[in-house]
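A protein record in our archive is deliberately plain, so that people and models can read it alike. The record that follows is passed on verbatim for readers who wish to inspect the format.
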Amino acid sequence: MWYNKDMLKGKKEKIDTIILSDIHLGDQTVRCREILNIFEKYNPNRIVLNGDILNGLRFKRLHSCDWRVLSVFRKLSKSREVIWVHGNHDADARIISNLLGIKSCNKYIWEDNGKKYLALHGHQFDRFLNNNFITSQGLFAIYNYFKRNNVTNIFLEYIRKNNSTWKRNSEEVAKGAIRFARIMGADFVFCGHIHQIEEIKEKNIVYYNTGSWSEGVSGYITINNGKVVLNKV
């Protein structure tokens, strides 16, 4: 179902929280329809946009569907809590807040139903990105070239699963997030960044990665009455 002005008025499932990341608005492969359908289905009290929602401030690259997604986020922020956790591809946090009227932060922590939740994008734990910024940007450009030229998702998935650097970075993000969650006393930690859906349980902490909305299978988290569910689309 596509977005229209009455989209937010229908009967929907009320839940506590929705978390999604790595939409990359401005990328021609963004699955806008599926994103909008989530907010056709659910009526959340809280929405956590967990980083890399916008590819910088390249507004000329935004299509009409991208603007519809931003419009929904802005409209929802007037009646409920919408938090934009800053990612490595997002524009400056102050610009995001001023432009869209949405609270922006580097990490977000909240408590509900006796549990503590932590959301952060995850690039903070990517040592390759932080130590090799120019090289990582070059690799990202090559990867985007493959996407723009309709290289199959099977090939891109093969790169993600078989490239040793990619696998090592995914492991580092998960381990770093779990360590930080333990320091913060969180029961659940949610990340994005690596564009790969994951769920890892380590002792009393559960780590989730919600993947990306610009390639392959996408994921999002729903939380209601203390029950955390990783949904795939």
